[in-house]
Amino acid sequence: MATIKQRYEPNIKNTKYLKYPIKSDYRITEGFLYSKQELSVRGHYFHKGIDYACKWGTPVYASASGYLVASYHRYPTLNEDKTLMLYKGLPQGNGLGYFIQIFHPEKVCGIKGGRITQYGHLSKFAPGTIWIFI
Asked: Exposed, middle or buried: residue 8 (CB in 10 Å: 0-12, 13-18, 19+)?
């Protein structure tokens, strides 16, 4: 079984194509990988994203060109084998609230097969909005 570093290190590399998704004042509340909050909520230390805090209603922009591929209001957290993740016997939702996923093709990110970025904890999502151009 791969260590956390072995599993997620490739996700950290080759991110020069990404831009900050918030263009106004913000602070980072949770960094990538290590998280005391994830330990208390889910029983593990790793956090698969970066959480930004900013004023309510602040626009969030795509970090790079791509295609909107999904938008939801929360979904269950699954293990690698697609079974529902449990902690202390309870199912784990990821708590993302409104979120979108954007696929960045290989010609944008330089990574074979492309990359998906996810934007969560959004206060609203405007269907029909044109988000990204290539």
From this structure: middle
* Spatial separation of the C-alpha atoms in residues 132 and 104, rounded to whole Å: 10
Nearest to 66 by CA among 103, 11, 32: 103
Q: Which domains does the chain have, with CATH numbers?
A: 4-122 (2.70.70)
Nearest Cα residue to 97 out of 77, 78, 124: 124
Beta bridge partners of 76: 93
The pLDDT of residue 53: 85
Structure pTM?
Answer: 0.61
Residue 130: both structure tokens together: 């044109």
Q: Judge whether 61 and 22 are in contact, CB under 8 Å.
A: yes
State which amino acid sits at residue 132. I
CA dist 128 → 68, 93, 124, 134 (Å):
11, 27, 13, 17
Structure tokens at 50: 């970066």
Residue 134 has a pLDDT of 41
Nearest Cα residue to 43 out of 97, 7, 83, 91: 91
